[in-house]
Design a protein that fits this description.
three-stranded antiparallel sheet, globular, mainly beta, six-stranded antiparallel sheet, 11 strands
């Protein structure tokens, strides 16, 4: 069967017709920055690089339920993201592992920039599902943070 989405969630998978029109956010996790001002009013970053992690929300409205049975907060998933990160090609490199489980390329270059879909090891922090019976519409959302 042809894959219907770039998203990969390992080990749970992504059922057909559960992720068309998917949306994913990727943002710095809480604690990724520890910003402060000096006595002279200058902004400085006191954060440790070890805390530079991502959090993500994946949401969709489609025809089928996602594979969330038995999934609870605290479970670890490997996520091949839909969202892309980018860097200046000359002298740059991906900051995270590049997704690689789909037939579609996980990297592309446009002009001076390389775009890639990261593969992240993430912990489930919560999720929601709903079903609108008359519309036969399944909506779901999965909250994750990088471990």
């Amino acid at each position: 069967m042809t894959e219907l989405t770039l998203l990969r969630l390992d080990p749970i998978g992504v059922p057909p017709y559960s992720a068309r029109g998917i949306t994913q956010t990727l943002e710095p996790a809480d604690g990724a920055a520890q910003l402060a001002r000096t006595v002279n009013g200058e902004m400085i970053d006191l954060s440790d690089n070890a805390f530079r992690k991502y959090k993500s929300n994946i949401s969709c409205s489609d025809f089928q339920q996602p594979a969330l049975a038995g999934i609870w907060p605290g479970q670890i998933l490997t996520v091949d993201c839909v969202v892309e990160l980018s860097y200046l090609t000359s002298g740059g490199s991906p900051e995270r592992e590049v997704a690689g489980t789909t037939a579609d390329p996980a990297t592309r270059t446009e002009g001076s920039f390389t775009f890639y879909r990261p593969r992240l090891t993430m912990m489930v922090t919560g999720y929601r599902t709903s079903f609108a019976e008359w519309d036969a519409d399944v909506a779901w959302s999965l909250d994750l943070e990088e471990v």
